[in-house]
Amino acid sequence: MRTSVPTPGSTPGTGRGGITRIRNLGILAHVDAGKTTLTERFLYLTGTTHKRGEVHDGTTVTDFDPQERDRGITIFSAAVSCAWAGHRLNLIDTPGHVDFAGEVERALRVLDGAIAVFDGVAGVEPQSESVWRQADRHGVPRIAFVNKLDRAGADLDAVVDSLRTRLGTVPLPVQLPIGREDAFTGVVDLVRMRAYEWPDGAQGQGRAHGERQGPVEGPVPETLRAEAERRRRALVEQVAELHPAALEEFCADGTLSEDTLVTALRELTLDGAALVVLCGSAYRDRGIEPLLDAVTAYLPAPVDLPPVRPDRHPTDPAAPFTALAFKVAVTPTGRMTYLRVYAGTLRKGDTVLDTLTGRTERVARILRVQADRTTEADQATAGEIVAVVGPKNTRTGATLCAPGAPLALEAPEAADPVVSVAVEARRATDTERLATGLARLAEEDPSLVVGTDPESGQTVLSGLGELHLEVTVEKLRRDQGLDVTVGRPRVAYRETVDRGVRGLVYRHVKQDGGAGQFAHVVIDVEPLDEGDFAFRSAVTGGRVPPLFIRAVEAGCRDALAEGPLGGHRVTGVRVTLTDGSTHVKDSSEPAFRAAGRFALREALRSGGTILLEPVAEVTVTVPDDAVGAVLGDLGARRGRVTGSVTRGGTAVLTATVPLAELFGYATRLRGRTQGRGTFTTRPTGYAPAGG
Prior knowledge:
Blueprint: H1 16-19, E1 22-29, H2 35-45, H3 66-71, E2 78-84, E3 87-93, H4 101-108, E4 113-119, H5 126-138, E5 142-147, H6 156-167, E6 171-173, E7 175-178, E8 186-189, E9 194-197, E10 216-218, H7 222-242, H8 244-253, H9 258-271, E11 275-279, H10 288-298, E12 322-331, E13 334-343, E14 345-347, E15 351-354, E16 359-362, E17 365-370, E18 373-377, E19 379-381, E20 385-389, E21 399-401, E22 419-425, H11 431-444, E23 449-452, E24 459-463, H12 466-479, E25 484-486, E26 490-491, E27 494-497, E28 501-510, E29 517-527, E30 533-537, H13 546-559, E31 569-570, E32 573-581, H14 589-607, E33 609-623, H15 627-636, E34 640-647, E35 650-658, H16 665-672, E36 678-688
Parallel strand pairs: 1-3, 1-4, 4-5, 5-11, 6-11, 27-31, 30-32
Antiparallel strand pairs: 2-3, 7-8, 8-9, 9-10, 12-13, 12-21, 13-20, 14-19, 15-16, 15-21, 17-18, 17-20, 22-24, 22-25, 22-26, 23-24, 27-33, 28-29, 29-32, 33-35, 33-36, 34-35
């Protein structure tokens, strides 16, 4: 096992060869699975920090925001760097709470790989599954770390089974735990068939002399040898089934060499064909060094990934500069823009093109970020993650590139808000400051939306959940010094078509002097099972030119903004343009856009629409003696129970509940379980209101 500790702060070179020794990775998991503790152990064991931070003490490096320390959870993704075995690891610790999924989305967009952390007792939890699906969408290679194996009830095999059944992956455990629960002391490495144990009291010894006490390495204990050999044989057979080159060696020799096994595991990880699974206890510093070795061995370097576009720049410091702005932070000392550099080299003082705004921006400073601390750098090269100061108008999702080689990269997706509150300044003199503060927060977090209620004129703040809005309002109070009042949360309803309508004819004719307007369309409207909106044309014979067909589609999209029931956004609609006609003089794009808009509005009214409300999957963990009361409360909240599992005196209930019914649920649950109950939520989409 490679356990050398480079000099703190040392980094590999940044030339083409140095890029192969960079790992840009995130740590993903459900809330309280141990992501932040694992990050702290990485920093400590690599010599980056000299004291282990603890979440419960509020002393962690990455949870530096006062609210994170007060609440004991990660709210904002934080970037840190460390060095291990000659590699530079750029880490992003992401939130585990569903309300901050936007932070995870923005991080995943720029990461090359990730460690998925799972609780050794709970296995795959709701938010574990959510972030896993997010990583799937971005094609991010992952390895898994089963944490908290020292807890009562921890079971590596059960977690591996849940990875297979819940996530649909092919888990490949490469370690066997030594001991169970409190007696967990180490792991057997099934690849090298060596044992590594961490005796109590060994952590951190020798730090005063600049050294670190690593695990005790030795042969596989006799009591575990037969089991370890059986599991290695199963690992080799699984790898041979999945990897053609490994299969050839297996057929010839009946086994796989260590080098072949490592190479095959790496290639299977990069392809997403299998999931390497390791285990340990981050809190007790057990299993961290092998995990660091696995990061360098199995997760990709920037050069292992395809170019940002097939016809464009490879990951090469000499190529034209290209970077994606994935995060904006407005601090008391200035505005920082976080960049992932995909190609080329950025130097202090360079002028770059923002392809989102079309403006050029000057980079005054380049900063290497260590959570809330920064150090100056003269340049940043392909494969690096840095922050820059200087750009004044760059937003999250913008591409910064060399002015002579413009290129627009795909921006991170911002989820639609589902909860809103009205926000007002208590003092009229603070109204302008409130507007400025909200605009700044929305600039930092694109999943926040600030608007105005057309009826009351109140400022409305919308976000991804009750906690998301609560944290935002608290930032206004703490950072801006504003005294604000907040209204009761409201959910974001949607409307959708019920029966649909066929052959609806609409003529848009306007003649008021000068050039007139004429557009004739015939449309079919029907429910769409998946997606928000779909449009297609079945017009034949050129009766409606392609230019006007596109205008009809644009008009239909305009009509989706407000539905007939209550002015809510319309979703789940398929529109087919079946026929139409034009006028030789009076037909135009604006005329057909208007026709599309009014035709769909009329179709929605005549075809019937239904109101949709956001629903969430709620996982409630309660003592057995409180199950009845909790089930009754879920029923009163229009919840539909979908599952129940008992684990040693504790029941885990799963239910689908309308989001509007979950406001204040934490207080009610504490009251019904004497403070012993906990719950998590995961948005699952929309359902008919009142259902």
